[in-house]
Amino acid sequence: MPAARLIDRGVIRVSGEDARDFLQNLVTNDLDPVTPEQAGYGALLTPQGKIIGDFIVIAVAEAEGGGFLLDAPLLQVPDLMKRLKLYKLRARVALDDLSEASAVIVSTDGSPLPADSGLVYDDPRLPALGQRAITDRADVECIATGDSEAYHARRVALGIPDGGRDFAYGDAFPHEALLDQLGGVSFRKGCYIGQEVVSRMQHRGTARTRIVPVIFTGGIACETGAEATAGTKTIGRVGSGADGRGLAMLRLDRVSDAQAAGEPLLGGGLAFTLEKPEFIRFPFPGEPGFGAAA
């Protein structure tokens, strides 16, 4: 069972009798389906609709103390804690940063983790990502002996963005980071912070910039952060890469223009083409309907 620790992940606990309602009123995803058997994926946004941090939400069984754990990017934990405390007001919730005592581990090949790995949960973004677990830091070396780069290579191959690598926190909208494609945004629940902007992008189809999987024709991915170009125009930036594949945040309208003009798409000077995974539902350049809701 290949498993690896993700050293760039932290853990926040949200507990207390108001914990579910508290999060429901703040985060992008619907908390109603989140149970100890089914994790959720969502984010906390600025009022302007930009992502402060995205995270996996795990419900803790009442027998184990109840509440929720947020499997979150470690560098964003201080800002997330600050924002959550700001919104706490008189809500009967407790907020605790468990990052020092906890570790997040993942399956590197999509296979199940052993039941004794800690708090085990399926990655809610895509079944093929497999399982994750939150465990005690003291036990992690006995459980996670694999290489986290193998997990990231699999993630890139599946087309799943990672914050800090593929999009910048505080700068990207949920649609740009594919949260709307990965179950990270509910368009049916009540209000949450930044909802108006997200709903407007959804209903008007104004998300022109998207993270999309790409394949480099030379079999070698360019450097993370390299500029993506077509002709003389910048069309975006390349993020994670592995085994000749990558993820790139691109202006899809400019990609369409480049394709119409016969101009190659380049990342760091290396040619690439777009690849559409099954979970992406919006049309790519050249497909019917492109431009109406890209």
TrEMBL record:
Residues 208-280 form the CAF17 C-terminal domain. The keyword Transit peptide applies. Pfam families: Beta-barrel_CAF17_C, GCV_T. It comes from the Bacteria. Keywords: Transit peptide. GO terms for biological process: iron-sulfur cluster assembly. Residues 11-64 form the GCVT N-terminal domain. NCBIfam families: ygfZ_signature (TIGR03317). This is Uncharacterized protein. It comes from Bosea lathyri.
